Structure formats: C-alpha cells, structure tokens
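Sanity check

After download, print the first record. It should look like this:
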Amino acid sequence: AYSGSVSTDAGFSIIAYLGNGTAGHTIPHHLGVVPQMIIVKERANANSWYVYHHSLGNAKNLYLNTTHAEQTDGVWNDTTPTSSVFSVSDANAINRNNGTTVAYCFAEKQGYSKFGTYLGNGNNDGTYIHLGFKPAFVMVKRTDATANWSLIDNKRDPFNVTYHFLEPNVVDDEFIPSSPQAAFDFCSQGFK
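Expected structure tokens:
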C-alpha cells in the first residue's frame, strides 16, 4: 500500500508506503525517469534516514542523520531504481512488515537540478563543479570519510560568497565557518 505526491516537472516525489518485510519489495515513485537520489525514513521507529545516490550504486548508502562515510547495508536490495520503481531489502529500517515509511525521490531536470560527485582539491580556490545553471541550493556530503552534511542556499546569503550552512546530521544552529575556506561560490553555470 502506498500514497504520495508527485511533480514530474520538478523531478520530485514524496511516497508514503507500507513495508512488507520481504526483500525485493518494489515501491513506485511515479517520476517517469530513473531517480538519481532517494531518501527513505521509517516513520514510527528511531531508525536512520537512508540515502541512495546514483554515484554510489545500488550496494551502498549514506545516512542523512550521521557523519558516516558510505555504507554497504544492502538496503536497496542491490537493485538499481528503474523509471517506475525502486527496490528495498527486508531491512526493518526501510521495509518493516506493516511499517509506515516515507521516501523522497529526486530526478534530474535540465537547468533545474543535478546530482553528482566531485573531487575536492583542498585549496582556497576550490574545485569548480559545472551544473549548466546557477544553483540556488546545494547539498554536499563527503562519502569516503566521516564528515557532516552541508546545506547551502542563496537565501540566507543572497550575495556571493555563501558562508552560512545548515547541517542536518547535527542539532546545532546554523553553522558559520571561521574562515573563508569553507565558503561556496555560486557561479552562473555551477559552483566552487
């Protein structure tokens, strides 16, 4: 059983589903294209927020609520999402029998959203990431080591360079770094 809300124009769906405790359970996302990122959370129990990202593949995941590097929990049933469904394992955290769960599914839309990876260079003049449009919101997470998630937008810092971060894996206030090395520069076709 499932219900949800979908915007194919924005490439975003919110799907509430009832787990069945069986590996290979498929959940329709209604995007019409393969989602590039999926965030799943069981609503009734204190489990992590599981994150699928296409660049990690179907055997790995991240947790939105921790600093962990990529994990190999097998929660995606080692199955890549299709243009109609994504698959989950029998893990209680995302497919508990009769467990109410919510999934946030994201697909790329040219000129609007992009999901990828980049290799940092450790310099003040950071790596440039080409998107093909000027971003309004960027979410980043280091995958090969422990690190906080960072959410950066152009509303709290309307003038470049952006310094104010939100970190969804901690309960702290907005983070303002003490040095500009942690800043993001929103460019006309990407960010650095």
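If your output differs, re-run the checksum step. Summary of this record's structure: The chain has one helix and 13 strands.
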